[in-house]
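FW: tagging you since you asked about this chain on Friday. Here's the raw sequence from the shared folder, copied in full. Didn't touch anything.
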Amino acid sequence: MPELPEVETTCRGLAPHLEGQRIRSVVVRQPRLRWPVDPDFAKHIKNANVLKLERRAKYLLVHTDRGCAIWHLGMSGSLRLVESGEPPEKHDHVDWRLDSGLILRYRDPRRFGALLWTAADPLAHDLLSHLGPEPLSEAFSGDYLFSSSRKRKQSVKTFIMDGRIVVGVGNIYASESLFLAGIRPNREAGSISKARYLRLVEAIKQVLNRAIAQGGTTLRDFIGGDGKPGYFAQELNVYGRAGAPCPSCGSPVRDMVLGQRSTFFCARCQR
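HL: got it, structure written out here
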């Protein structure tokens, strides 16, 4: 499933090709996504000028002079730019034809993604208004995380994966960040000191920035490619490596289930 770094890479890859373009026409072949596409969506956005692209959590916001399109890629969705003559395939559900002649094409085999429209402030939309700070922003700090965690009995891993606390720290990145910070994932969030939360925030920022930088090496794939940015798998320390030696101490990496998610950690390095 695309996580924050993959959505950020998608945003950066598409922005130079969409910003300043007019959307000449829209084709919605399959409106039955996670939520039905507004039957009037094409009417709303046809001939709109794209002003800018930005990411909020795992949502891609396409701001136009008429309103904002909100994309969510779901579990299997991707966006890519194709030439106007390229025929759509089975799972290509939405096309935007641009002034440049290119088509922005949305593919989603499992149809868990979404395409929404709002004429109001997208950050006030029901899906976005309750979200916590961005993890790479100054608002996300050790002091903030420490104060938010007081009296919390839940595990620190499920705590940092809660989008109301901080957005975009998915399962892989939570495991990797806790490893770098030396914090065992099943520790109670409220029992962790401020000093350790300072280290955890730095680890989260480091892991996400590295993942974004790695995904950025595949920006060329957004034109004529599969529209899927590079993932972080080759640099993982613990995630998915149960039984393998810890890269720091050599002890076997262990796994457990927290919040119905597989969790990986080193019992010697993380306390």
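FW: The mean pLDDT is 92.
HL: agreed, and The chain has two domains: 4-124, 142-265.
FW: great, closing this out.
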